[in-house]
Amino acid sequence: MKKSIQIGLLGLGTVGTGVARMLMENMEILVARVGVPLKLKYIADIDLERDRGLQLDEFLLTSNAFEVVDDPEVDIVVEMIGGEGIARTLILKALENGKQVVTANKALLAKHGNQLFKNAMDNGADLAYEASVGGCMPIIKTLRESLVGNRIQSMTGILNGTCNYILSKITDEGIEFDAALAKAKANGYAEADPTLDVEGFDTAHKLAILTSLGYGMEINFDDIYIEGISKITPLDIAFAGQFGYRIKLLAITKAGDNTVEARVHPAMIPFDNLLSNVNSTLNAITVTADAVGDILLYGHGAGMMPTASAVIGDIVDIARNLLMNANGRVPLMSYQMDHVKQVPVTPIRDITTHYYFRFFAQDKPGVLSTISGVLGQHGISIKSVNQKGRKTEGSVPVVMLSHLAKEEDVQNALAEIRVLDVVSRAPMLIRIEDDNYEE
Fold first, then answer.
1. How many Cα atoms occupy the beta-carbon half-sphere of 356 within 13 Å?
2. Whole-model pTM above 0.85?
């Protein structure tokens, strides 16, 4: 039996620093739980001079990451570099060399996970990735292990802390998107270029991984519908509140007969939905399955120590497997590889749900009937109308909630309404996710 597990850490950024800190500061408790020491043999980074607040022995440090993945004494390679370039190359090399790998790299897994998981299996290695989705929320372990006897019916989650913070600020303070984004940047919750977060791509990376685990399908990022939050206004949030809803950026997947829905977009959810009360930078996900019904996971989806905690959990799982010579005990993609199949993603045009529409229309007789007439021609029935609001440049906001409608019909109707003379601005559409919506 091994006397220790040797670890090579690639990347000493925010999360990498957290991983190193936990390995050093929690060494005693980790030994008690694993049975042998988890020893950092290497820390590789391109910047070895910056102070990370850690006391690191110089013999641990290297600027040559390939030295780490090629060392036969290294048991586990922990990739904390990020991105799809050198990180991918190093993981493939580590797997080729028979190393076990831990990563938090959701973009890499969403784009190249099918190849990486196959390489891991071909080389008899584990590839663990709990920290790639939801930070410290154990959603990967929940799907791969705790719910292994269930048929997953749907998953709905708030999976990006930046977007959740921005929407919380707009809701609580009534400020515009740009002002809320500026606050997120000032507090370190948003990158200098926040596009991946606010336009929904980061959430979609995570959803691609979850759909694979939930339904035994190959990762299919390119077919996920993605829409961000940059067009959400305080006016829409105020109207949503009047109808009993809050607006959140949701990752949504639902199982169909021979297909799955997989979409990321802002959605209105009722006040009594637990997700509606998940605010600031927190994340949460609801999983609905045949045996357990609904379960909710909730916690910090990002940050140094919450994410590092998930990484350490993966390291310990792999270390225990190594000590018992039980690599591959849990299938990497939840299903055995020969049962992972291609499952088509439902095109957004084919989904059916409820809708919120907001138009800026001229304040004169017949306008409502004109707009409603176009919607009716496309089979869209209106449940309620709200015409309260301040007149702006001769127009007033008109808000409608629809009964159940097909996305394709909605988009065709909005295309016609958009060019009407009585409408002064592009219409706003927000989908409604409400299981108790009264038809």
1. 29
2. yes
